[in-house]
Inverse folding.
C-alpha cells in the first residue's frame, strides 16, 4: 500500500523549474532513495514533502489525506538536515524533546510522557549517556544520532533525510550507513533519503528514484536501475567508471566497462559482439585493471574496459586486441531522446 | 507650484487614498493570482494585524517628518494665528524655502558639512582599510586585542573628551576652523569603519589571496588587487555610513566652532537659525527635512550591506 | 639572532605587513584619543579654566567639589534613570521590529525607509521637529488632544489648552525619554536584524518540521540564539544614551530647573559655557569608570552567552 502519493508536482523559482512534474508513490515501510546530481531538484522535492516549500502545482497526500496546503507540523513528517540543525543552545535531552513539546497540546503529552519518550528513543540510538551534553560537545556521529533521535521521537509517518551522511568522514560514513539501514528495518519506518552519492543510494535503498533536471528518470530497485537503465542518463549516471556509449548509424548503444572483456575470456563467442580494440593505457587498480583504448571505427573518444586482475591475460599498450561484449549486456538508446530501445535481435541491430 | 498647492491642500485625503489604493491593489493581485478562495481570504485576514502593527510603528516614526513637511509650506498667519497644524487654511507658500537658501547661512552649513565629511572619509579610508585588513587576516592574538581596544575607543562618548580636545584644538590654532573637525572626527570614524570593514574582508575567501600570492604577488599587492576590489560594495557602504556619522556629530562641532559661517549642518541649523528666543519655524523644519530625506534613503539603500558587515564582524570577530 | 633581522621578503611576511597596516590607525587613535583622555584626567586634578590655562595640581579638590554638589548628584541620577528606562523600551520595540523586518511583506522597503528616518536624521535636526511637536503653545499633539476632548475646558487630562510638554517636570522627563527611544530604536533594530539573519535557515526549517509555531520558535529558538547580539545592541544604545547631550541641549537645555539635565550637558555647561575646564573635565570623568565597567561586563556576558 502506498503511504505517500505525489502527483504532477512542480516547483518554479522564477523561471527555474526546480521540480518539473513529478509523480511518485512511496510505500509503507520502504527505504526510498532519491538520487541525482546537485541541482536536479531532489532537495526541493523533499522540502515539498516536508511542507517547507509550497508547490507551484500538483498534489501530495500522506496516508490518504491531501496535505498539499498543510504546514509541516500537520503532516506527520520529520526531517534530518544535512547540517543536522541541532539547536546549539539546548542540551541533547531538550533537542530531542523539542518536537514533543511543540506538539504537547495536540497530542496531550505531559512532562512524564515526554521524559519517557526521549529516554526510550535515546536508548534505541545508544545516546542515552549524552543527554546532558550540548551539541558542540558531540562528535559528528553522535550529532547524527541525536538528529535522528529527534526526528524519530514523534513516531512520524515519514522520515525525511537530506544527505545526512555527507558531513561524516569516509570511515564513519560506511558504519553510519549500515546502522541507519538496520535502524530503519527494525523500526519499520518509511524513510526518504536524498543523496548524490550512488554508492550510498545502492547500499541503502529498497528502491531508488533517479532524478535529473527536475524530472524523475527512473524508479526501481538498485539492481533494476543498474542492470536495466531506462535511458542514457540513468545508464551513465550510475556505475563507476560509467557506461561506454557508442553512436552507430541508427542509434546509440552502451555497455559497462566490466562487461567489455578480451575475447579469449568469453566462453561463448557466438553470443557476443566482437570489437577491435586498440589499447592506449592501462591503470592497475588492485583488484581490477582499467583499460583505456579505442574501438575501431569509433576513435573519437575513449572506450573503457575493466578487466579483473586475477584473469591471466596480458594487456600491452599501443597494441590491437579483440574484445567482446555479451549481447545481453548491450543497451540501445534513441539517438535523440536517449530513451532506452529494446532490440529483439541485438546481433542484427549492430 | 499649482500642483504643489493642490497636493498640500489635499494632503491627508491623498495619503488615505494612496494607502487604500495600495492595499486594494495588493489584495486584488493576490486574488488574481491565487483565486478568490476562502483560504485566500482567511490568509488576508490573518496577515492584517501584522500590517496594522507595521503601520502604527511607521506612524510613530514618521510623524515629526510629516509635520516638518507640511509646516515648511505654511504662511506665518496659518502657523501662528489660528493653530491648525494638519491642514492649510491659507494658500501654501514656498517663501520660507526661499528664505532658508537665500537669507541664511544654510548653504554655508551644507558646504562645510560636505567639506568636512569628504575629508574625514578620505582620512578614514586611508587609515582603516589597511588596519581592518590586518585585523581580519594578518594578526594573531595581539591584533585581536587591538581590535577590542578599537571597539572600546568607539564606545567612548564625545562628552568625555570634548574638554581636553577643545584645549588641543585651541593650542593647535584650529579653533573656528573646519580643520579642527577634520582632525578630530577620525577618532570615532576610524574605529567604526575598521570594525565594519573587518567584517567585509572576512567574507572574502582567503584562498583567493593565497592564489594571488602563489601567482607572484606579495601580501600588499594581494590586498590591493584581490581583497579591495572584491569588497568594494562593503567599502562603499562604509563610506556612506562614515560620511553620515560626521553629518550627525554635534558636540565637537558645537564646542570647536563658534563662527557662524564655519559651522556644520547639525550645529548650525539649531543654533544659528534661532535668534535669541525667535524661532523661524518653517525654515528650521525645512532645513531638518531636507537633510533627513536623502540620508534616510542612503541608509535604507545600504542597510543590508551594513547588516552583513556587522554580522560578519560580530560572528567571526 | 635571526629573528631580530628583518625577514628577507618583508612584504610577504604576515607579521611585518600586519604591523605596517595596523600602525597608522593605531597611532592616530592613540594620539588623538589617548592624549586627550590623559589630559582630561590631568584637567580633573588641576585648576585650569578658559582664562587661566596653567595646570597646577590641586589633588582631588575638583572631584570632591563635584561630588558634594547637589546638582551634580541629581544630574548623575537623572542620566542613569533616563538611560535605564529608555533601554527597556528600546529593547522591546527593537525586538518586535527586528522580527517584522526580517520577514518578507509588501511595502517592506518603504516601511523600512520610514522606520530608519529617526536614526538617519542628524540628531540635532530631528530634535527641531520634536521641539515643534512638543511646543508649549503650538504642539500638534496638544491640538489633537484638544480636538478629541482630552484637553481644554472639561478635558480628561487638563482643563488647559496645552500640556506644556517641555515645561512641566514630569512631562519634560517623559518627553526626553520618549524622544530618545524614538531615535535609538532603529539602531538597536538593525543590530538585532543582523543577529536574526545570521541564524542558519536549517535551524528554523527544523523547528518548523518539528511542529514549532511562531511564538515557540521565537521564544525558544530565535531569542536565545540572538542573546549575545542583543547584549551588544544594549551596550551600544546604553553608552550612546549615557554620553548624549544633543537631545536635551536642543529640547530643554536641562530645564525645567534641572529635571532633564544629564551628565554630558552639565559638563558642557560648566566646562565650556561656564569656562571652568577643570570642573567640567571632572564631571565627565565620573562617567568613565561606569562606562568601562558596563562595557567590560556586557562584552563578557555576550561572549559567555555565545553558543558555538
Amino acid at each position: 500500500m502506498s503511504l505517500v502519493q505525489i502527483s504532477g508536482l512542480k516547483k518554479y523559482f522564477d523561471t527555474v523549474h526546480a521540480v518539473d512534474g513529478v509523480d511518485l508513490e512511496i510505500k509503507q515501510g520502504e527505504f526510498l532513495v532519491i538520487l541525482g546530481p546537485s541541482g536536479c531538484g531532489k532537495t526541493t522535492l523533499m522540502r515539498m514533502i516536508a511542507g517547507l516549500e509550497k508547490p507551484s502545482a500538483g498534489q501530495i497526500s500522506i496516508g490518504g489525506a491531501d496535505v498539499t496546503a498543510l504546514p509541516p507540523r500537520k503532516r506527520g513528517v520529520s526531517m534530518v538536515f544535512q547540517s543536522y540543525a541541532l539547536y546549539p543552545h539546548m542540551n541533547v535531552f531538550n533537542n530531542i524533546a523539542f518536537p514533543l513539546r511543540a506538539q504537547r497540546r495536540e497530542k496531550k503529552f505531559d512532562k512524564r510522557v515526554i521524559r519517557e519518550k526521549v529516554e526510550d528513543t535515546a536508548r534505541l540510538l545508544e545516546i542515552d549517556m549524552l543527554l546532558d551534553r550540548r551539541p558542540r560537545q558531540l562528535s559528528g556521529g553522535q550529532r547524527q544520532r541525536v538528529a535522528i533521535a529527534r526526528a524519530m521521537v514523534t513516531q512520524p509517518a515519514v522520515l525525511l533525510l537530506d544527505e545526512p551522511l555527507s558531513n561524516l568522514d569516509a570511515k564513519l560514513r560506511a558504519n553510519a550507513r549500515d546502522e541507519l539501514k538496520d535502524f530503519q528495518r527494525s523500526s519499520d519506518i518509511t524513510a526518504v533519503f536524498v543523496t548524490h552519492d550512488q554508492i550510498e543510494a545502492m547500499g541503502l535503498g529498497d528502491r531508488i528514484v533517479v532524478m535529473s533536471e527536475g524530472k524523475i528518470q527512473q524508479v526501481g530497485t538498485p539492481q533494476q536501475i543498474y542492470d536495466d537503465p531506462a535511458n542514457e542518463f540513468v545508464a551513465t549516471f550510475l556505475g563507476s567508471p560509467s557506461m561506454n556509449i557508442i553512436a552507430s548509424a541508427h542509434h546509440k548503444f552502451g555497455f559497462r566497462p566490466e562487461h567489455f572483456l578480451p575475447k579469449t575470456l568469453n566462453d561463448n563467442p557466438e553470443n557476443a559482439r566482437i570489437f577491435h580494440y586498440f589499447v592506449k593505457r592501462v591503470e592497475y587498480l588492485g583488484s581490477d585493471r582499467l583499460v583505456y583504448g579505442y574501438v575501431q571505427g569509433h576513435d573519437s573518444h575513449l572506450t573503457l574496459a575493466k578487466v579483473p586482475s586475477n584473469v591471466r591475460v596480458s594487456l600491452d599498450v599501443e597494441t590491437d586486441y579483440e574484445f567482446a561484449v555479451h549481447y545481453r549486456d548491450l543497451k540501445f538508446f534513441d539517438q535523440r531522446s536517449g530513451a532506452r530501445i529494446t532490440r529483439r535481435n541485438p546481433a542484427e541491430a549492430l | 507650484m499649482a500642483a504643489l498647492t493642490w497636493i498640500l491642500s489635499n494632503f491627508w485625503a491623498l495619503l488615505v487614498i494612496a494607502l487604500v489604493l495600495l492595499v486594494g491593489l495588493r489584495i486584488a493581485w493576490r486574488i488574481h493570482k491565487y483565486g478568490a478562495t476562502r483560504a485566500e481570504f482567511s490568509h488576508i485576514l490573518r496577515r492584517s494585524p501584522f500590517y496594522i502593527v507595521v503601520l502604527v510603528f511607521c506612524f510613530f516614526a514618521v510623524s515629526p517628518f510629516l509635520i516638518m513637511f507640511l509646516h515648511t509650506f505654511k504662511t506665518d498667519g496659518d502657523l501662528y494665528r489660528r493653530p491648525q497644524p494638519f491642514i492649510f487654511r491659507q494658500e501654501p507658500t514656498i517663501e520660507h524655502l526661499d528664505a532658508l537658501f537665500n537669507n541664511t547661512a544654510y548653504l554655508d552649513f551644507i558646504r562645510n558639512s560636505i567639506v568636512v565629511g569628504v575629508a574625514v572619509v578620505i582620512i578614514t579610508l586611508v587609515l582603516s582599510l589597511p588596519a581592518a585588513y590586518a585585523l581580519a587576516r594578518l594578526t594573531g592574538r595581539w591584533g585581536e586585542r587591538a581590535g577590542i581596544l578599537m571597539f572600546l575607543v568607539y564606545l567612548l562618548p564625545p562628552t568625555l573628551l570634548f574638554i581636553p580636545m577643545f584645549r588641543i584644538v585651541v593650542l593647535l590654532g584650529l579653533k573656528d576652523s573646519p580643520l579642527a573637525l577634520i582632525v578630530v572626527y577620525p577618532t570615532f570614524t576610524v574605529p567604526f569603519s575598521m570594525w565594519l570593514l573587518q567584517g567585509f574582508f572576512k567574507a572574502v575567501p582567503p584562498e583567493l589571496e593565497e592564489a594571488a600570492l602563489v601567482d607572484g604577488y606579495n601580501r600588499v599587492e594581494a590586498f590591493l588587487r584581490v581583497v579591495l576590489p572584491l569588497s568594494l560594495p562593503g567599502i562603499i557602504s562604509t563610506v556612506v555610513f562614515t560620511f553620515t556619522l560626521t553629518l550627525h556629530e554635534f558636540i565637537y562641532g558645537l564646542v570647536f566652532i563658534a563662527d557662524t559661517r564655519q559651522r556644520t549642518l547639525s550645529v548650525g541649523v539649531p543654533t544659528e537659525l534661532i535668534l535669541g528666543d525667535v524661532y523661524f519655524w518653517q525654515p528650521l523644519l525645512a532645513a531638518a527635512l531636507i537633510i533627513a530625506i536623502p540620508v534616510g534613503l542612503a541608509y535604507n539603500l545600504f542597510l543590508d550591506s551594513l547588516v552583513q558587515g556587522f554580522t560578519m564582524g560580530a560572528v567571526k570577530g | 639572532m635571526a629573528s631580530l633581522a628583518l625577514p628577507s621578503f618583508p612584504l610577504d611576511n604576515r607579521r611585518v605587513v600586519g604591523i605596517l597596516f595596523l600602525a597608522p590607525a593605531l597611532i592616530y587613535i592613540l594620539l588623538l584619543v589617548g592624549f586627550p583622555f590623559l589630559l582630561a584626567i590631568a584637567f580633573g586634578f588641576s585648576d585650569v579654566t578658559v582664562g587661566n590655562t596653567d595646570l597646577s595640581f590641586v589633588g582631588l579638590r575638583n572631584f570632591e567639589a563635584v561630588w558634594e554638589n547637589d546638582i551634580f548628584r541629581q544630574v548623575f541620577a537623572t542620566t542613569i534613570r533616563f538611560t535605564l528606562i529608555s533601554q527597556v523600551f528600546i529593547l522591546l520595540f527593537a525586538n518586535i521590529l527586528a522580527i517584522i523586518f526580517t520577514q518578507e511583506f509588501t511595502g517592506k522597503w518603504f516601511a523600512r525607509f520610514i522606520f530608519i528616518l529617526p536614526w538617519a536624521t542628524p540628531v540635532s535636526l530631528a530634535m527641531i521637529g520634536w521641539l515643534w511637536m512638543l511646543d508649549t503653545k503650538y504642539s500638534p499633539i496638544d491640538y489633537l488632544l484638544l480636538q478629541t476632548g482630552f484637553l481644554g475646558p472639561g478635558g480628561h487630562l487638563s482643563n488647559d489648552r496645552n500640556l506644556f510638554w517641555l515645561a512641566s517636570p514630569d512631562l519634560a522627563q517623559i518627553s526626553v525619554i520618549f524622544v530618545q527611544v524614538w531615535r535609538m530604536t532603529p539602531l538597536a533594530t538593525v543590530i538585532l536584524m543582523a543577529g536574526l539573519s545570521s541564524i542558519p535557515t536549517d535551524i528554523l526549517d527544523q523547528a518548523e518540521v518539528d511542529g514549532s509555531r511562531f511564538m515557540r520558535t521565537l521564544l525558544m529558538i530565535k531569542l536565545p540564539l540572538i542573546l549575545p547580539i542583543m547584549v551588544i545592541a544594549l551596550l551600544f544604545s546604553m553608552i550612546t544614551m549615557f554620553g548624549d547631550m544633543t537631545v536635551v541641549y536642543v529640547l530643554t537645555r536641562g530645564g525645567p530647573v534641572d529635571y532633564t539635565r544629564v551628565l554630558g550637558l552639565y559638563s558642557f555647561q560648566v566646562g565650556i559655557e561656564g569656562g571652568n575646564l577643570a570642573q567640567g573635565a571632572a564631571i565627565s570623568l565620573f562617567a568613565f569608570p561606569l562606562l568601562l565597567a558596563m562595557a567590560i561586563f556586557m562584552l563578557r556576558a555576550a561572549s559567555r552567552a555565545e553558543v558555538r
Q: What stands out?
A: Chain A has two domains: 2-227, 243-349. The mean pLDDT of chain A is 89. The first strand of chain A starts at residue 2 and ends at 13.
